[in-house]
C-alpha cells in the first residue's frame, strides 16, 4: 500500500502535539487490548496510541499522517465485534476515550451535545437524571457514543424508536487530511445538499473521525412495563411477532430467548431468572405516560399471545423484577461467550415476518454443519444474533465448519431479503459477506466515496468494502 | 460542458425503446410546464420528454444518454420551488408521473412499496383507508413521492414524526450509467456498509433516478384534535413554542400564522377562517389513540399558552372545523402568490429556540430593504417560509431588493446556527446561498460524491453544489 512506517521522528512530533507523555503510548506501553476488539479474531498492533483530548489534537495528527501517508485507526471503547477498530496496517491509533465530556443539554431544542468518548451508560444516566430519554439501547452499555454512531448501533428499542441514526442531528468531524468540519446541526429539518451526516453514521471510522455529536432527545416516558411470555415452542413465539405488529400495538421492544441461553445467563450472573416453565420466551416492553395508557396496549397483546398458545403472561411492573429480566437479557452475549472456548457471530437482519424462517434455518444448520449455534435477538425488528461455538473443535475443524456455517447463514439471509449486518457493522471480519450480499455497483460506489473522502486511504484502511 | 445535442437519431432510438409515440414528446408537443417548476424563476426547455413507465425503460434511456453524453433531467409533478426539475442543459427529460402504481402493502412489516409517480395525496388516502399512517405531510399534496424523497420533504408533522427520510426503508435506483440497483430494503435495522440510501434521499435527482420506494408506515392514530390559539402579538406566540417543547408535551404540529396571511387565504379560498380576534396564532395538532390520552396532553399545553398571554384556546374537534383550519393553512403558499405579481421564497431552518429572532429579523427587513415579506411556517421544527413579494416593482428594482433581502435573510439564518433549506432543497435557485452557508470542504465532498456517481455529469447538471 506504500504506507510510511512510524519512526522516532513521527513519535517526537506526536509527543510535541500532545504535550503529555502519558497520552502517547509506544511499544511495550501499548496494552494488548489495543490489538483487538471484543470478538472478531482480528489482531494487529498499532505502532503508537494517542489518547486524544480535543479535535485540534486529532486534526494536527491527522494532517501530519496525511502528509506522510501514515495509517490512522480511530478507536472508542474497543467493544466492537467485527474488527472495525483494529489497526490492520499498524501506524497511529487515536483513542477517543478521554474525550468524555457532556458539553451541553439544550432543553429548548431537546438536544444534547457530547464528545465521542462518552459511554452509552453515562449518557443514558445523565439524560434520565434530567427527565429526558435517549432511546438507542444496544446491549453493550460500555460502548462509546462515537462507536455507536460509527456502527449505527441499534439495540432493543428499535421496534418503536429506531436506531442511533435517528438520533444524530449534527456531527463535528476531522477529515482524513486534518480539516475539521461539521455536518448537520441543531436543526430538526435539513434539505441543504447531500446528506454527509448520514454518510458518516455507520461508516465505522473510515471517512472521518467524529469529535462531537449533537443528539436528539425525547421526553422520558413516565412508566415502563415488561411482559415475559413463555411459549411451548420457539416457532410459536416467533410466529406471534408479525401478528403483534399487525395488531398495531407497537411495543418498545420484542425480544426472543430460549431456555438454554437463559440458563447460560443464570450461570454467568449467578442469579435466577424469574421463570423456567418453557423452552422459549418473548420479552416485550411497553412504555407510556400512564399505567392506564400502557395497560390498554398490552392487554390486547397479552390476549393475542394467549390465543397463539402462550403458556402464561407474566407482568413485570416492579423495578426489581424488571431489572432481573433485562439484566439476564443484557448478559446473553457474555454468557454464551463463557459457555464455550471461542465463538464468532452473525448479526443478520431480515424482514420481520421472515425471522422464523431464519431462526429455524439456523437451528437446523447445527446438525447440517455439526456445530453448536446459539441465537437470540430482536424479533421485533428482524435483527438476529447467532453465535457459532468452537467448543472442543481443533483449529482446522473449527475454521472449516465456521466458514461453512457462516456462508450458509448469510446466503439464507440474502434469500430472505435481509442484510449482512443489522447493527454490528462490517469492519474487517464481515467484508467477504458484504461483498457477496450487495450488488457489485453498490460496493464500487462505497469505494469511490471512500476515495472522495480519503484519497490516500490512510484512515482505517481494509474495512467495509475495501479489499 | 461538451454535451451532445439531441438529434433525430437519438429521438428515433428513444421512440423505439418506448414503443408508444404518445409517451415521447418533442418540439411543439412539449407543454410549457415542462420548462419550469412552481416558483424558482428558472426556465429551460428539454429537447425531448419521455413519460416513462418502468425502471427498464429508464435504464435503457439512461445507458444511451451516458454513452452519448446527453444530459438527463428527472421530473415528478413539477411542484418544486427551487428549479431542481428544470433541464438547464436541455437534453432528455424523464417524467415519472405515469409510474404511479402502489405495488404492495405489507401489513406484517408495516411497509408500502410504491412507484415514484404516486402522488402524496394518493398515498395518504390509500394507507388511511387501510388504517395505516404515512406521517410526512408537506403542504403540497399533489407532489410525487419520488419528488418528496428527492428533496427530503418535511411538512407539518415533523415536530413529532420527523421527515420523509425517516420513512424510507429502501430504494430502487437507476444510476447515471443505466445500472439498476437497490439501496436498503424491507429491514428495520441496517449497518451493512455506507448509507447510500440516505445519500440518495435529498439529492434532488442528481445521483440517480428513483424508480421504486419501500416506505415505512405507522398505525393510524385513532383521534386527532387541533388547537387554534390566538395571541396578542406574534412574538408572544412564538416565544411560547420552546416552552411547549420544554414542557415535554410533543404535539404533532406547531404552526404559526399571522392575520394578513389568513386574510389572503380567506380571499383565495372564498371561505371564512374560524377566528379573527388576533394578529397572530399558533395552530397545534395532537394525535393519539383516545380522546382522554390527547386531552391529558393538550390540557397542559393550553394552560401554558394562557399563562403566556394567549387570548383564547379554540379546540377543533369536529371534522368540519378541522378541515376549515387546515385547508386555510394548506392554501397559504398559493394565497400569498395570488396577492402579488411575482415572488421568491426562503425556506430557512433554524434551531427552534431561535425562530423568534429569525421572524423578527424578517419583519424588520421589510423596512430595511423596502419590500413586502410575508412569512409563516413550522414554528415547532424551526422551518420558516418567507415570501418576498415583487408587487409593482420594476425588474431592476425587484432584482436589487430581492437579492439584498435574500442575502441578509440567509446570513441571519447562518448566524443563528441554521441551514439554507429545511425542506424545499437547493436545486438551481439556491446554489449561491448553499455555497455561502456551508464550509467549502463540505461542498467539495458533495461534488466529489456527484463525480463518483456520475463521472460524465449527465444527470441533472448545475444543481446543488455544482457551479
Could you explain the architecture of this structure?
Chains A, B: It holds the Pfam family FAD_binding_4. Two copies of one chain form a homodimer. In chain A, the strands form five sheets. Chain A has a five-stranded antiparallel beta sheet. Chain A has a four-stranded mixed beta sheet with strand order 1-2-4-3, covered by helices on one side. A four-stranded antiparallel beta sheet of chain A has the order 13-14-12-15, sandwiched between helices. In chain A, strand 17 and strand 18 form a beta hairpin. Chain A has four domains: 8-98, 2-Layer Sandwich (Uridine Diphospho-n-acetylenolpyruvylglucosamine Reductase, domain 2); 102-219, Uridine Diphospho-n-acetylenolpyruvylglucosamine Reductase, domain 3 (2-Layer Sandwich), CATH 3.30.465.10; 223-333, Alpha-Beta Plaits (2-Layer Sandwich), CATH 3.30.70; 340-423, 2-Layer Sandwich (Alpha-Beta Plaits), CATH 3.30.70. Chain A is globular and about 70 Å long. In chain A, helix 12 (355-369) packs antiparallel against helix 13. In chain A, 36% of the residues lie in helices and 20% in strands. Chain A is α+β, with helices and mostly antiparallel strands. Chain A starts with 7 loop residues before the first helix and ends in a 14-residue tail after the last helix. The longest helix of chain A is centred in the C-terminal third of the chain and has 21 residues, at 395-415. Chain A has helices spanning 8-18, 55-68, 120-129, 145-151, 158-161, 196-200, 234-246, 259-269, 291-307, 319-330, 332-338, 355-369, 395-415, 431-437, 440-453; strands spanning 24-26, 48-51, 72-75, 92-95, 102-106, 111-114, 132-133, 168-174, 180-184, 209-216, 218-219, 223-231, 253-258, 280-288, 314-316, 343-346, 372-378, 383-389. The model of chain A has no long low-confidence stretch (mean pLDDT 95). Chains A and B meet through strand 9, helix 6, strand 11, helix 7 and helix 15 of A and strand 9, helix 6, strand 11, helix 7 and helix 15 of B.
